[in-house]
Amino acid sequence: MAARFPAPAARGVTQGTHAPVPSAPSAAGPSAHGLQLKDRRRTLKIVIMDEEPGPSKRRKSKTYYFHPEWENSFLFTQIEDTCACLICGAKLAVGKKGNVERHFSTMHMHFERKFPKGSNVRSQKVSDLKAALQAQYSIFAKPTKKANAATEASFKVTHHLIKNKATFSDGAIVKEAILIMADSLFKDLKNSPEIMSAISGVQLGANTIARRVSALSANMIVQLERDLKTCKYFSIQCDESVDIAQLAVFVRMVFEDFTVKEEFLTVLPLKTTNRGSDIHKEVKNYFAKQNVPLEKLVAITTDGSPAMTEHHSGFIANCKADPDFPPLLNYHCIIHQQEVCAKVMGFDHVMTPVVKIINSIWAKAKQHRSFKLFVEEISAEYGDFLLHTRIRWLSRGRVLRRFLSLLPEVKAFMESRNEDVTQLSSTEWLLDLAFLTDVTEQLNVLNCELQGKNKTIANMISSVKTFTSKLNLFIQHVQKRKMHHFPSVLQVLSEDKAEAELLDTEKYSRLLMRLNHEFNERFSDFELLEPCVMFTSNPFMEVDVSYISEQMSVLLNLDSATMEMEIVTLQNDIELKARQSDINFWSRVDAEKYRNIRTAAMKLFSLFGSTYLCESTFSDMNFVKSKLRTRLTDDHLNDCIRVALSGYTPDYRGLNCPLKLPDYTVLEDIMKHHVEGE
């Protein structure tokens, strides 16, 4: 179908179309004839279109436009896209001159006698009728606009509240607060009553907020489904909560132009058991229910729990055995593996007394308050402890750093209570504490680099490789008794130089080597992927073309022979070489010429490296599922989490569903009254 002919627009007047606009003629055969009538204010263009040549022709179609002079001649005006009579309010289906003139001459003959054409009294009457019609229009339009504005405001406030994990009942509190604030700010203004009335009209009750949340969530689901249909590939990350059996799922989508979106997909309740087969069943049912295109799935990233990773009955094993799932990659979360690696540090003889002392101070509120006051009195760097938890091993880094900083105050406080502090005075134990503090702080740096949104697999592999290289450097330095990368150890040694021979560098180097070995073992899966990731990050680097092609063929289900030819061609493409520093490089690569390479890059761009988004979701759920919200259903929980975490902007206008404008034929009696009253 060819493009439509553009209709000429007149300044200050909206065009109205009352017949289908014909298609533009193709170059091959259809003929078009244009008749253009002009005056100084308005152009009427009638486009006549013939059908394609053939034995039979369709009836010609026409497009009509309103003429401003009809207002004075026939007392018709334009309302939205229709012609309406100023006298009776009748609207014409086809607004051509003949219909307008016929209606005026047959229905309102008396008007011509009372108000002769061209007279001043006629012009004044037309103006009065137009003003009356516009006044009636505004009577209906203004309340509608106010209601729509209030509804839109209600949606926006709801979105903001749920983004901040507020409860449904908080909406009423917010409204009361706004009214109090507005009363102080606008009480001296002339339109203060109107402002207060507008604020009062915004519905923010608990039931209204609940409905708004469901509507916002549904709108975001529509946007998500649209993106899932238009994206080229996607991957998911899954993690299971430890308190109540619930599975959080996030999706990472890559599009034709290589833009990437990470979005919350769903939280699935596991109502019976949480075996791998149960998780697989729930995920598959959700995909089928939401029409998620499974053929686009590239990879699944999970934590290291048996339900996810068990070789024969885990979630991943069930997905790979299911013929409805495509061949896919699977990886354990890099952050989880890093934490497991960190646990090989051991050093229980350090952590046990530290945790015991901290928990002892926290155990009794009176002792805790006394210690805090004591620390404040001597102006210590920190005024409190971080309570250590075993749920996250890497919380040790912050705990140990703070404990070490407060060590003199801790010793003084414990001595004042006649508690044994012999171990806290041992240089050997203090060196172990300092060494563990420095190493765990390095692990914390890595952990922070791995966390966050929109982390590519390339970024995460680079961070892990950087850390293992640092470990190799640390091992070499420790073996040579160079401790300048261990500031806490240097601090302990500087306080007692006579005890420097107690520094057991052999023990520390063994520990670092064990940690390095654990990292290499745990991240061996990523070694297979690393060459492919490096190539997509720098496609013009020197590579073994056959090896890269084979790896991409195995991992990404692509043809290795075609891949080889495309890599060779790409690396010798002078035009693309000149653009290799362009941030949008891959979107500029020809989709036909380098189809396999682009596909490989898209699949790699879609990969998650961790389950960080799922884990952070469970933290958010702790706020949403407070003790005061015991009646929160699974659907409401899912809606709240989606609205709180989604990156989509709600379509407030679409959600608003504005009321239809009134049918102006109901104004017929009013208009007649104006005429007959003359």
UniProtKB/TrEMBL annotation:
Region ranges (Disordered): 1-35
PROSITE patterns found in the cross-reference section: CB
InterPro entries named in the record: CB (IPR044068), RNaseH-like_sf (IPR012337)
Start and end residues of each Core-binding (CB) domain: 373-472
Biased composition (Low complexity): 19-32
Source taxon at top rank: Eukaryota
Name of the protein: Core-binding (CB) domain-containing protein
Species of the source: Pleurodeles waltl (Iberian ribbed newt)
